[in-house]
């Protein structure tokens, strides 16, 4: 079903991305990334789940990105502050700071509140042929394209996720697989992907499907993983320096495409809470 037209569609010439999302390109040089009104971009993000601002003058630094996030609402405070540098470390302690496989997940699952919006700014990025894209999956599309019997079965699935708190996140999360969107009520998927057999990462999550045998759990994970990476549901963003990308974190799951260590890839990210803030399923 087509999305409702917003002011941002008409004033800024929003172009559809495939298979979801919208691109707003600066209509003239020198316009700041703050030029499109927040209320219009917010409406577009809620309609399309992901919006890219491209060709605008980007934020001068992390403080400017944080200020922009605060113009959207309350910004989530982490142990490191509000602006997260998405950047590979020379000696990473967690896969978030590495360049290899990263499980599909939603942000804020290990925080007290799950942010409604992710706001990214790309400072540097590898060439599009060298990996490093961010992959986003629209879980409402997944559920719409999945047969009703499977969706009914998924609605009864509860997963336990545990990560040691080595960096800025960790704990125990007990979450249903299918949850209503806090704003729209539409069914969405909340899923932290187990690490595939034969793959090694730093600080891997422990993922358990409650009340299922090992065979049943593997079948559920395979079904969900296959649907999440289906091209009908997955948008792969090739970063360009200066890109501002804003997502509906309540609807999407995301991951990083592996890339070669040493390549330039530096993003900054701010989380914006919903109104009211949405409690997570963090247990400990």
TrEMBL record:
GO terms for molecular function: oxidoreductase activity. The keyword Oxidoreductase applies. Residues 15-270 form the TauD/TfdA-like domain. InterPro entries: AlphaKG_dependent_hydroxylases (IPR050411), TauD-like_sf (IPR042098), TauD/TfdA-like (IPR003819). Gene3D superfamilies: Clavaminate synthase-like. Keywords: Iron, Oxidoreductase. Pfam families: TauD. Its cofactor is Fe(2+). The keyword Iron applies. It comes from the Bacteria. PANTHER family: GAMMA-BUTYROBETAINE HYDROXYLASE-RELATED, TYROSINE ISONITRILE DESATURASE. This is 3-(4-hydroxyphenyl)acrylonitrile synthase. It comes from Saccharothrix texasensis.
